Structure to design on (306 residues):
């Protein structure tokens, strides 16, 4: 079987609000190619013709899809998957509809509510309830989220909303523990791994700096552990919430869901990531290994499930 590891190349500049290295997938591509004998790794800027040429030239049986930001634009992630679907090639990861849906947090939350999955309550900026959190509705990778995203006053809320260029969403801030739930399986969430993020020195949520700048105080103040004490009843509720989310958004192969507890200890979905980080020692790579899987077995399973 011939596998093409297809990844997008980082832009020369990601603008003032994002780091260009966020989009550098060379390490992730090498990480998934390593267990696959004779896998071909190919980086593309992301033009449709470029992707089609790669398919024509390589003639793969399966594409391991790492096209996260075609042309340096994360909002085109679902377009690359749609092109693979249109071409009739088997590929790993969620399909274009799931990728497109989860790109918009507000629409994802509306769908989850209709499916009976608990998500944080929306807040009307004209009649705010504090504390609340302001997030971009159409960004990924925690872009647009910083230390000032949790608001405690009307002026604070006003300032947080007006610094965002695109559509925003305002939700009640949940004060409890936060978990990253990684799920994987062919069509259903057959396997799971739960990591807990702890917040130190006043940090209240995962910011863009915490996620991408390992030299930052925010990164140091948001360590993740897979050895946290979670009682069986809470673990069961977290997993039930995560698996219901998987089914609601139509996921396949792999999904990461961020879940946070309210003041009563009830779990709520705060983010859904259908194309989670897969670089060495972080994200899904770490999650599956913490669950007892060999990385080689996980990658080969992805290819088999495509």
């Amino acid at each position: 079987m011939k596998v093409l590891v297809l990844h997008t190349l980082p832009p020369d500049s990601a603008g003032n609000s994002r780091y260009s290295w966020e989009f550098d997938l060379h390490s992730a591509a090498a990480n998934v190619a390593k267990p696959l004998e004779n896998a071909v790794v190919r980086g593309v800027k992301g033009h449709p013709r470029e992707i089609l040429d790669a398919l024509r030239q390589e003639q793969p049986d399966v594409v391991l899809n790492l096209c996260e930001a075609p042309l340096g634009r994360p909002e085109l992630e679902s377009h690359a998957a749609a092109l693979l679907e249109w071409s009739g090639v088997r590929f790993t990861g969620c399909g274009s509809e799931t990728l497109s849906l989860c790109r918009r947090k507000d629409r994802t939350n509306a769908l989850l509510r209709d499916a009976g999955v608990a998500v944080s309550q929306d807040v009307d900026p004209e009649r705010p309830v504090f504390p609340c959190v302001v997030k971009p509705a159409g960004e990924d990778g925690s872009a647009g989220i910083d230390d000032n995203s949790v608001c405690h006053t009307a002026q604070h809320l006003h300032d947080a909303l007006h610094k965002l260029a695109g559509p925003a969403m305002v939700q009640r801030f949940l004060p409890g523990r936060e978990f990253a739930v990684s799920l994987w399986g062919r069509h259903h969430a057959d396997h799971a791994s739960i990591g807990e993020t702890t917040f130190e020195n006043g940090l209240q949520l995962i910011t863009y700096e915490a996620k991408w700048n390992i030299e930052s105080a925010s990164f140091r103040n948001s360590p993740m552990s897979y050895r946290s004490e979670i009682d069986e009843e809470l673990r069961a509720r977290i997993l039930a919430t995560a698996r219901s989310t998987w089914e609601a958004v139509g996921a396949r192969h792999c999904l990461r869901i961020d879940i946070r507890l309210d003041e009563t200890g009830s779990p709520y979905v705060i983010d859904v990531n259908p194309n989670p980080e897969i670089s060495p020692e972080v994200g899904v790579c770490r999650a599956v290994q913490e669950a007892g899987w060999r990385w080689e077995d996980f990658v080969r399973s992805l290819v088999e499930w495509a």
The chain has a mean pLDDT of 96.
